[in-house]
Amino acid sequence: MRIVVCDDHLLLLEALGLALGAKGHDVVALAGTPDEAIAAVAMHRPDVCLLDVNFPGGNSVAAIHQIRESSPETKVVMLSAEADHAVVGRAIAEGASGYVGKQKPIVEIIEMLDRAVQGQMAVEPALLQRALRPQKTTEDPLWALQFLTDREWQVMRCIMEGQTTEEMAGALGVQRSTARTHVQNLLTKLGVHSRLQAAALMSAHGSHDAWPVHLR
């Protein structure tokens, strides 16, 4: 992977860069602030940006959208010493693909980066559910729809049409394994365990207006 790493603690920043490099990855830039990370991503267009959450001037969540805008193919994985589910939720809403703890060994951090690059949601399932689920879920059974990507909406349509994984892969123009990954991401966000449950949820509570305007 080609990686930009951003952290305001210089010692940790350099240690992460060395550790990732020692594992065979190409650390194209080390950034000390979110603004430096935005500039580095725009210049190098890496596969992934490992972005620390907390900085002296606040958190870096606002930088996620700018990073993704300057390099849409770059995935953003947040790095934090705390598993704050509220921050995780905001980060995902802004376009982050993952969230990993600083206390994790480098092998697990790399695994999360790799999952993000492959298009998976690189967040521990329990943390993801706490992050995306509001305090009163009964008020809106479709609360998680706001967090779906365009691709996941397309997968939802395929599920609603009863397509098999193979048919879905053909319709989306992706490999079967990629289609399965998209399905799993969708099910995880909705908090259901099967395609049938996802379809039932949409049939029972969804409407034409629930779909994004450009995908109706």
Q: Helices and strands in order, then pairings?
A:
Layout: E1 2-6, H1 10-22, E2 26-31, H2 34-44, E3 48-52, E4 54-55, E5 58-59, H3 61-70, E6 75-80, H4 85-94, E7 98-101, H5 106-117, H6 125-132, H7 150-160, H8 165-172, H9 176-190, H10 195-205
Parallel strand pairs: 1-2, 1-3, 3-6, 6-7
Antiparallel strand pairs: 4-5
Domain HTH luxR-type: 141-206
InterPro entries: CheY-like_superfamily, NreC/VraR/RcsB-like_REC, Sig_transdc_resp-reg_receiver, Tscrpt_reg_LuxR_C, WalR-like, WH-like_DNA-bd_sf
Keywords: DNA-binding, Phosphoprotein
Short recap of the structure:
The protein is built from ten helices and seven strands. It has helices at 10-22, 34-44, 61-70, 85-94, 106-117, 125-132, 150-160, 165-172, 176-190, 195-205, and strands at 2-6, 26-31, 48-52, 54-55, 58-59, 75-80, 98-101.
Key traits:
216 residues, alpha/beta, five-stranded parallel β-sheet, two-stranded antiparallel ribbon, 10 helices
Polypeptide structure, described:
Residues 141-206 form the HTH luxR-type domain. Residues 2-117 form the Response regulatory domain. The modification 4-aspartylphosphate is found at residue 52. There is one protein chain. By secondary structure, this protein is of the alpha/beta class. It is 50% helix and 14% strand. The chain is built from ten helices and seven strands. The strands form two sheets. The protein has a five-stranded parallel β-sheet with strand order 2-1-3-6-7, sandwiched between helices. Helix 2 (34-44) packs parallel to helix 3 and helix 4 (85-94) crosses helix 6 (125-132). The longest helix is centred in the last third of the chain and has 15 residues, at 176-190. It is elongated, with a radius of gyration of 18 Å. The protein starts with a strand and ends in an 11-residue tail after the last helix.
